[in-house]
Design goal:
single chain; Rossmann fold; 3 domains; disordered N terminus; hydrolase; exonuclease; Exonuc_VII_L
């Protein structure tokens, strides 16, 4: 950077014995006054610029304003001064959290070595421009599926511990606690306080959300604040916050503002409550209603059970009144007589079948005996066998010397053929 020398023309009055900053060495250093004067003269050459940011500090002293502007997309900040002569030309309702554009000129105060920007004009950023940017972000998140009902988690029926993110000692905190405890006196809260507007809103809310989401005892998280103008609710449409809520493993309820307020957090949360009071009613069941419901279910179950028992008793009495059950002895006697007749008939049938089968068996036995070789042998015939048990049927098959076995009715004889063939008569 070019280092300019302070001169009487620009108000610089460096000591006569001070070395110029550009000529300074360890043995011949420049003075603080001459260095500051050089810096002031260099900064004075800068032109006025228009800058956009969020007011994070606004202190009025002696009619003048000393504050800070923060970049809306990062942590970069600048100090600003608004002299009393300028305050009458800017909106009177400006304050912390407002999104503004300002005409600023750099200024360096030699005595304190303080660098800041002097404001010559300041106005609110057009709400229409901000809403247009928010609508573009809303459309992008919707296209990514962050608003889909399918990805939203159901709320527990009766949460053991409710995580609450809200402003300290705020009406929203009181509303949530009062209405939840009226519905279920034993309800427990784990509250994390965070700024609900201004530059601390998003980082503090994110930190609180991370702590509660990491707590295994917390079953549901409510982010609550009272109503406000669109400017003060901008933090709850911040992309960092809405993406963190979408990624949370614990169900998150958005209870920001009133019925007509609609930050992007409402769309990405698992449940949107119109007010902090509505959030308490949606998250915590009414103990009186639940007891009444249990009483109704119990009465209905008792009635149904009584009807069923009465119906079954009536059916049993009807069955018992029938003759067959009132006096079963005649039926048993009739059945006994019928059973005896059937048994007698069965015995007769089996006996006849056995006699017929015995006669048939005797006839078959006689036929077998008549056809048996033993009967033929008994009449004086014999059977001649060759070696190996072959029956001899032709004399030519037994030449002289052939060993024979002759079987008669009673026993067998060994013989040998002489080879002669006798004439048959």
């Amino acid at each position: 950077m070019t280092v300019f020398e302070a001169s009487p023309a620009n108000g610089g009055t460096p000591p006569a014995d001070a070395v110029a900053p550009r000529d300074s060495t360890a043995d011949a250093p420049t003075s603080v006054a001459r260095l500051n004067g050089t810096i002031r003269d260099f900064v004075a050459r800068w032109n006025t610029v228009w800058v956009e940011g969020e007011i994070t500090s606004w202190n009025v002293r002696g009619g003048n304003v000393f504050g800070r502007l923060k970049d809306t997309q990062s942590d970069a900040q600048i100090s600003i001064r608004i002299w009393s002569s300028v305050r009458g030309r800017i909106p009177a309702d400006l304050g912390i959290g407002d999104h503004v554009v300002a005409a600023v000129k750099a200024d360096y105060f030699v005595k304190a070595g303080d660098f800041s920007f002097t404001v010559s004009s300041m106005k609110h950023v057009g709400l229409g421009d901000q809403l247009e940017r928010l609508e573009k972000l809303r459309a992008q998140l919707r296209q990514e599926g962050l608003f889909d009902e399918s990805r939203k988690q159901p709320l527990p029926f009766l949460p053991h511990v409710i995580g609450l993110i809200t402003g300290e000692r705020s009406d929203a905190e009181k509303d949530v606690h009062r209405n939840a405890e009226l519905r279920w006196p034993q309800v427990r809260f784990r509250t994390e306080y965070a700024a609900v507007q201004g530059d601390r809103c998003v980082p503090e809310t994110l930190a609180a959300l991370r702590r509660l989401d990491a707590d295994p005892d917390v079953d549901v998280i409510i982010i609550a604040r009272g109503g406000g103008d669109p400017q003060t609710l901008l933090g709850f449409s911040d992309e960092r916050l809405v993406r963190a809520v979408a990624a949370a493993s614990t169900p998150v309820v958005s209870a920001i503002g009133h019925e007509n307020d609609h930050p992007i957090l409402d769309d990405v949360a698992d449940l949107r409550a119109s007010t902090p009071t509505d959030a308490a009613k949606r998250v915590v069941p009414d103990v009186g209603e639940q007891r009444a419901l249990i009483g109704q279910l119990r009465a209905r179950a008792t009635s149904r059970l009584t009807q069923r028992i009465s119906h079954d008793i009536a059916q049993l009495e009807q069955l018992r009144s029938r003759p067959v059950l009132r006096s079963p002895e005649p039926i048993i006697a009739d059945r006994a007589q019928e059973l005896w007749l059937l048994l007698s008939r069965g015995r007769d049938t089996v006996a006849r079948h056995l006699d017929a089968a015995s006669r048939k068996t005797s006839e078959l036995r006689a036929s077998l005996r008549a056809l048996s070789p033993a009967a033929t042998l008994a009449r004086g015939y014999a059977i001649v066998h060759l070696d190996g048990g072959v029956i001899l049927r032709d004399a030519a098959d037994a030449p002289a010397g052939t060993a024979l076995t002759i079987t008669v009715n009673r026993g067998s004889l060994a013989a040998r053929s002489d080879g002669e063939i006798a004439e048959s008569t």
